[in-house]
Amino acid sequence: MRIGLDYRTVGTSPHSGISRQVYALEDALQHLPDCSVTRFAVAPVNDPIRQHAQCPAWSCAATAMHQPHQRVRFEAGFLPKALRREQIDLYISTFNMGLPLPPRAPGVRYALLIHDLFQITLKNYHANRLKALLYRVTDYLSIAYALYAADRVWTPSQYSADEAARLFPHVAHKIRVLPNQVDGFSGVPADLSTYKLPQRFWLLVGTRELRKNVPWFVDAWQQARAHSAEVPPLVLVGSLDHLPPEQRNLPGLQALNGLNDAQLHSLYLQAERLWQPSYAEGFGLPVIEALSVGTPVAVASGTSLDEITPPSAPRFAPDNAQALKKLMIDLAHPQPDADPQPLKAWAARYNREAYQKRLAELIEELR
User: Fold this and answer.
1) How much is the average pLDDT of 199-227?
2) What percent of the chain has pLDDT over 70?
3) Could you tell me which of 109, 41, 132 has the C-alpha nearest to residue 79?
């Protein structure tokens, strides 16, 4: 089977969570018997990605790859002919949309990876209201078309699957769950002594997106800390610029940005607990990463975090600040050392072996 893989996100943001799943998908496909993988992307003229991906002759800046007119140029003007030329049997789009526009090459089937649908259900960051409206409309139309055209729709969680079926009931029969691959960490954790981290701290990963609910969480943490001196300092992975100005210099609050895997590994190991307060989450990568090293977690309820988190983990409503404050105070007292193996075993259900096994089942459906 000749499989085409949408590689555009790798060119745009090679270290993003979506790109990490593209790498996992590519690796898993290459290990399937009788399968070959061809990458399809757009890139600047001298970009190294052109050496191992099928790209149109025209150039496109990495930051412009997902602009509507560039997408139409690629998906209508280049991709259908390229799929025919490369004799692709199955083409996989990896970012919620992006399937080729008609006409479809004879015999080719389409799979669509839907990470979540928040770009059409929630407010997102844009330069102005007109741009926000433009992207909301074009994103909706692109996703609706891709769901219609796809032979299979893969989602990383049952929550995302249910959301897709709720918003687009006519595609429910196509939807399958393909949980994300989370490899955990290998190698030696980095030395973080230069960051002067506190001896005890809680951890929160990701600050940019509104749905991460970080300002609300920080406010509850500040109140809990004022009530109990046992509440540990809070370390954020991300930028303080995404918080309101009045929160950026709070005592006990520290932000780290631009960390590599070895540094993240060490940070997860040193954290007393990871908190994930998102009110909308399609999977929840930091939760599995924390569990993979045996670090306890506490998560907001109501989305995919319910299904990817061990039943024993503390949960809180993402809009009940008083309940969260009480939970923080309850969990602030130093806990006796617990066996980390059950947490690591839970995380292992999302490892490379589990991912490849599930993907093989889904590819077999499409042979």
Assistant:
1) 96
2) 99
3) 41
Sequence-ordered list of residues with C-beta below 8 angstroms from that of 120, at least 6 positions apart, any chain: 136, 139, 140, 143, 167
Q: What does the block give as tokens for 76?
A: 């209508």
SS3 readout for the chain: CEEEEECHHHHHCCCCHHHHHHHHHHHHHHCCCCCEEEEECCCCCCCHHHHCCECCCCCCCHHHCCCHHHHHHHHHHCHHHHHHHCCCCEEEECCCCCCCCCCCCCCCEEEEECCCCHHHHCCCCCCCHHHHHHHHHHHHHHHHHHHHHCCEEEECCHHHHHHHHHHCHHHHHHEEECCCCCCCCCCCCCCCHHHCCCCCCEEEECCCCHHHCHHHHHHHHHHHHHHCCCCCCEEEECCHHHCCHHHCCCCCEEEECCCCHHHHHHHHHHCCEEEECCCCCCCCHHHHHHHHCCCCEEEECCCCHHHHCCCCCCEECCCCHHHHHHHHHHHHCCCCCCCCHHHHHHHHHHCHHHHHHHHHHHHHHCC
**Residue in 40, 47, 48 with CA at minimum distance from that of residue 86:** 40
Query: Residue 134: pLDDT above 90?
Result: no
Q: Which residues contact 332 (CB under 8 A, 6 or more apart)?
A: 224, 228, 230, 231, 232
Condensed to tens digits (0 to 9), the pLDDT of residues 24-83 reads: 999 999 999 999 999 999 999 999 999 999 999 999 998 888 888 899 999 999 999 999
Q: What pLDDT does residue 93 have?
A: 97
Token pair 């002594």 is at which residue? 193
Listed residue (252, 247, 249) closest to 230, CA to CA: 252
